[in-house]
Amino acid sequence: MDYNKENLIYITGQAQLSENDAISSVYSIFSLALIIDIETDIIKDVECTSAMKLTSKFISDIIIGKNIETDIEYIIWDVKKRFHGLSKKALIASLMDVSNRYNNQIKGI
User: Fold this and answer.
1) Concatenated DSSP letters for 62-90?
2) How far apart, in whole angstroms, are the C-alpha atoms of residue 100 and residue 94?
3) What are phi and psi of 81, to 5 degrees?
4) What is the pLDDT of residues 84-96, one digit of tens each?
5) CATH for 8-106, among 3.10.20.440, 3.10.180.10, 3.90.1010.10, 3.30.200.210?
6) What is the pTM of this model?
7) CB 3.0 to 4.6 Å from 24: which of 7, 8, 17, 38, for a disulfide?
8) Cβ distance 14 to 31 under 8 Å?
9) Taking the CA of residue 101 as centre, how many other CA atoms within 13 Å lie in the half-sphere pointing to its CB?
10) What is the pLDDT of residues 48-91, one digit of tens each?
11) Does residue 106 sit in helix, strand or coil?
12) Cα–Cα distance between 104 and 107 in angstroms, integer?
C-alpha cells in the first residue's frame, strides 16, 4: 500500500497487557497502529504487537475496511465474538483508545 497520500494518517492506541499473555514477556504494552483515510474514516491498514503473525493477520482481517467512526462498536463486538486470545481485553482497550484519539485529535469531537 502507498502511504504517501495526504489523506492517510497513522494513529495508535495502547493498553496494558495481562501478565498471563505470552507477549507480556516481550512487550509491556499492547499497541495497535492504524492507517486511516481521514476523508472517509476507513481503516486501510493495521498492525499490532503480537507474538505470532497469525494473530496480527486475524486482527487485521477483522478491522481493515471498517469505518473508525461508525463501525467501532461493531468491531469491538466482532473481536469479543471471534477473538479468543489472551490479549482480547488489551485489544478492545486499544481499539477504544485509538477511536478516542481519532475523534479528539483528528476530528476534534
Assistant:
1) HHTTSBTTTSHHHHHHHHHHH--STTHHH
2) 10
3) -75, -40
4) 998 899 999 999 9
5) 3.90.1010.10
6) 0.89
7) 17
8) yes
9) 16
10) 988 789 999 999 999 999 999 999 999 999 999 999 998 899 99
11) helix
12) 6
